[in-house]
Amino acid sequence: MHRSVYVHVPFCRHRCGYCDFTLVAGRDDLADRYLAALDRELDRVEPPEAGGRRELDTLFLGGGTPTRLTGPQLDRLFASVFRRYQLGEGAEVSVEANPSDVTPELIDRLADAGVNRISLGVQSFDAAALKTLERDHLPADVPRVLETVRRRIDNVSLDLIYAVPGQDLAGWEETLDAALALEPTHLSTYGLTFEKGTAFWSRRRRGELISPPEESERDMYAAAMDRPAAAGLRQYELSSHARPGFECRHNRAYWSGDEFEAFGPGAASLLGGVRRMNHRGVLGWLRRLEAGESPWIEEEALGPADRARELVMLNLRRVEGIDGEDFPRRTGFKIDELLSEELLEQQRLGLVERDDAGVRLTREGRFVADGVMSAFL
């Protein structure tokens, strides 16, 4: 039985040039239509056999910018979710927040709704990098924002981006140190990517944006692994670091290959071995639900071998890697049966290691994780 739910809130004040997520910018006028459509989508949830509401271990509101909704709109969203689901004891409830949106009133409203984890889109503590990333806050805003959040919610994750055009290793290390000085419970560190179709993709092709050299980006990732560890945050996933007990349980469910349900435009679910994808266009998703149609545009039932290989890729994102006992129990395959030649080659290259506990990326393998994982497809 799945016990994790994701809700996608697709509103932003501005679409940052690097962003390829499903969202609309400057269209807050669509929020009430979105909430009505979300309610219709949630109506598709089947109650448990015993009746009542399904119980959740984790609930995650992401975006877009969930905190772009007004207070009454947030109340309406939570009311829709909690008509179909209830929080289990000790459930983790996360909301992504833009620093510029945070007020005492917002945090009180979120905490009163049951939110106990905030993921704050800080991205950088360098004013020049924030300008390049088209963010609407300043580095000096973040300590005040954190103080406001911590009045009610202690579990705060900071999201950071490295390899920003114009950034060097020293600048990235300063951002890491500034973030760690604020003693977050969790830190996410992402290398900037230039996705096709984004404004940054076009600007780089025109020569307006130049990425740091590959060796510099490698050094930045090394710093992203080492500096948080020295400050007491353990790396538990390729881009994630946490104080003991503060790992993001919702994301761990993804990387463990657990089933989950997701709602909103562009949201993807995994239930009963079937992966479903909602319409990515916000207006298209709205129109489908307003017409009484399914929001799904893709549905794929994974075969046993494909499901097992997908689990390999998900598990390898975890520092702990693939559990040698759990993997065959869940998939029906032993790792050697599924990946014998590929595994030996990656071991020979020094990119994965294995022992009685299972298989995991080496430190060197983390630098080229995407390539290692593609070798197992």
Automatic annotation (TrEMBL):
<keyword id="KW-0949">S-adenosyl-L-methionine</keyword>
<keyword id="KW-0963">Cytoplasm</keyword>
<dbReference type="Pfam" id="PF06969">
    <property type="entry name" value="HemN_C"/>
</dbReference>
<dbReference type="InterPro" id="IPR006638">
    <property type="entry name" value="Elp3/MiaA/NifB-like_rSAM"/>
</dbReference>
<dbReference type="InterPro" id="IPR010723">
    <property type="entry name" value="HemN_C"/>
</dbReference>
<dbReference type="GO" id="GO:0004109">
    <property type="term" value="F:coproporphyrinogen oxidase activity"/>
</dbReference>
<dbReference type="GO" id="GO:0005737">
    <property type="term" value="C:cytoplasm"/>
</dbReference>
<dbReference type="GO" id="GO:0046872">
    <property type="term" value="F:metal ion binding"/>
</dbReference>
<keyword id="KW-0408">Iron</keyword>
<comment type="similarity">
    <text>Belongs to the anaerobic coproporphyrinogen-III oxidase family. HemW subfamily.</text>
</comment>
<dbReference type="InterPro" id="IPR058240">
    <property type="entry name" value="rSAM_sf"/>
</dbReference>
<keyword id="KW-0479">Metal-binding</keyword>
<keyword id="KW-0143">Chaperone</keyword>
<dbReference type="GO" id="GO:0051539">
    <property type="term" value="F:4 iron, 4 sulfur cluster binding"/>
</dbReference>
<dbReference type="InterPro" id="IPR023404">
    <property type="entry name" value="rSAM_horseshoe"/>
</dbReference>
<dbReference type="InterPro" id="IPR004559">
    <property type="entry name" value="HemW-like"/>
</dbReference>
<dbReference type="GO" id="GO:0006779">
    <property type="term" value="P:porphyrin-containing compound biosynthetic process"/>
</dbReference>
<keyword id="KW-0349">Heme</keyword>
<dbReference type="InterPro" id="IPR007197">
    <property type="entry name" value="rSAM"/>
</dbReference>
<dbReference type="Pfam" id="PF04055">
    <property type="entry name" value="Radical_SAM"/>
</dbReference>
<keyword id="KW-0411">Iron-sulfur</keyword>
<dbReference type="InterPro" id="IPR034505">
    <property type="entry name" value="Coproporphyrinogen-III_oxidase"/>
</dbReference>
<protein>
    <recommendedName>
        <fullName>Heme chaperone HemW</fullName>
    </recommendedName>
</protein>
<feature type="domain" description="Radical SAM core">
    <location>
        <begin position="1"/>
        <end position="234"/>
    </location>
</feature>
<keyword id="KW-0004">4Fe-4S</keyword>
<comment type="function">
    <text>Probably acts as a heme chaperone, transferring heme to an unknown acceptor. Binds one molecule of heme per monomer, possibly covalently. Binds 1 [4Fe-4S] cluster. The cluster is coordinated with 3 cysteines and an exchangeable S-adenosyl-L-methionine.</text>
</comment>
